[in-house]
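User: Batch of two.

Assistant: Item 1 of 2:
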Amino acid sequence: MPLQLAAQSADGNAAVSDLAQRLIQLRGEVEDLQGELDIEREEHKGRMAYLSAQKTELEAAQDREQTRIEQLETELAELRERAENAGADAQTLQTVALQVAAGLREQVSAQFPFKREERLQALQTVITELEAGVANPQRSINRLWAFVEDELRLSRENAIYSQTISVDGESLLVDVAKLGSIAMYFQTRDGEFGMAQASGGSSQGSSWRWVKATDSEDRKQIAELFDSLRKQIRQGYFELPNTLPPRRASTDSAALTGAGL
């Protein structure tokens, strides 16, 4: 009997020892998981702060664009009024047209890089013909009128265009998905994707560059945008790569939604 009790006691001690070791192991695993959870929590907190800041910048860019649209509408109304008041005075009409064309040229030069060269060339043609005296001032006023109306239309339109851009010093003819005047993404003929990215902390300056998307998720999101636009799906919720200046190395995306997108 004493031998049997001793054996049972030894077995019990071994079980307790094994249980203690298991508890120590589990406690270590819990501490490791808690550490990982703390890291994940901090990363999530930082990510949410980053996305919140980017959301604020996107909203500010949208507000600036809305202000520009309102300015264009005001200029269009003023252009009509000045043209009417100028009457048949060709010299006055010429002065008005030159002033308006110069103002529009300044705006286009400092804005979104959508077919910027073509838009600037259209304005320069009006200016050159007026200065050379080979254009009828009233006809030039009408051309500027149409130009402003086109600018208003472009600022509200989501569509795909063909455009020549410069990527890494190489000139490429690409398909461009233009979302109003807030964001632009491109697809090359050989299936690469990218975006127009603002630099210098502003999406309204002339400092824009075309960059290729290197992250697989970014490429997937842009491809889905092109597919939707080609299917005439122009409204809804799209998660897209951020086109604002990166504050840190990140592949965070900006979610764009609304009636116009």
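Item 2 of 2:
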Amino acid sequence: MNIQVLQPALPSRDRTNKPELIVLHATAGGTAKSSISHLRGVGLSYHYIITRDAKDTSNSAAAQNTEPVIFQCVPNNKHAFHTGSTIPAPGGQGINKSSIGISLANIQRKTNPEPYPAKQIAALNELLAHLKTAVPSLKFLTIHAVVQPWNRADPLKIDGKKLAEKHGYSWWVPTAEQIKAHTPK
């Protein structure tokens, strides 16, 4: 697994509680590096962004069959700014305060979505397995579309429930009442 720690890190805050939830995303941008630049400019962040290949190619069709880079953009002991949802995480705290955000570099088109290279999915699986032991407080996994369904669909074509099961996490979905109560008016 090729993890590179981003220096300087993307915006974050100190945690007041241990992370319990992983939220999977897709960047919706060309490369991981261009996404990092955009996030830095708008004050948002993920803990990790996984490239398509070793060269951070801008689309899956051009991706080489090489090991992706996993950029650690925020330390696990800090909270990142990766969801705009006010739905509380399973432990009752805000999602950003209680989670690790992982994003796949991928252009998210609803029609004809970009496929994920096999090595990028393998890197995601390695990272999920690594986090299971490195951060034992992580118990739940979900996707961005589940915690912010009113305006997010990412990551398209990722079966979060299956990934949760494969790695020993509980699949987490907020209740219909929570979604209704926290959907912006």
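The beta strands are 3-5, 13-14, 21-26, 48-50, 70-72, 78-79, 99-104, 140-143, 170-171.
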